[in-house]
Amino acid sequence: xxxxxxxxxxxxxxxxxxxxxxxxxxxxxxxxxxxxxxxxxxxxxxxxxxxxxxxxxxxxxxxxxxxxxxxxxxxxxxxxxxxxxxxxxxxxxxxxxxxxxxxxxxxxxxxxxxxxxxxxxxxxxxxxxxxxxxxxxxxxxxxxxxxxxxxxxxxxxxxxxxxxxxxxxxxxxxxxxxxxxxxxxxxxxxxxxxxxxxxxxxxxxxxxxxxxxxxxxxxxxxxxxxxxxxxxxxxxxxxxxxxxxxxxxxxxxxxxxxxxxxxxxxxxxxxxxx
Length: 274
Prior knowledge:
The chain is mainly α. It has helices spanning 3-23, 37-65, 75-99, 112-126, 129-132, 134-140, 144-171, 177-200, 209-235, 241-270. The radius of gyration is 19 Å and the shape is globular.
């Protein structure tokens, strides 16, 4: 196991504890009344379908070009393929989550649609590893100049992507403007701390870090997807509604913090700093 995985787990736990402490045990979820998230969710589905198609095309391209790669069994080539495969699964699962966002037919203590939308938005942000695959893809085929430029473009893409996530969390009512800023700051501190440690101990860095973090992202995404899938069932059981209304925001904030830290670690790995 790459040191980056252990570093991520430690950093994520610390960051989640910090984020939950800031969020507090009680939070009244009140979505922006001007935000028609059901319609927005429906419009997300075809976009994600197109991205899933792009990821599949990438996998097919890589498989057909494997014979032209000097070493198709190398870590770098394996990493690219796995990143595209996981990205496809992520786009597909995110589209399913958005497609199943409920419509508010009645006023309830727990806003199921807002919870589903917030969770789907976090899942979508986690699929940024599909973008990260572009740099190792270009490197695999010797396009080092393009790969270097792409790496810096990814930094901007992550910033914009987090802005979209922050908007989703805020407008769905799951985080205040202060909270979304603090999630980013806590993640930056956690990722920066590991980068500093790895800088003083270069032996912690591994060429397999990106691959291991990608696999970790998939493994961690399975229970998160499962939780979002069974959420509607729990929300229609009266004994669970008060618990969800009072505590589900902690699950959303913790999930958002964990994913934000993971994206930071993947960015480090792509740059060869993890």
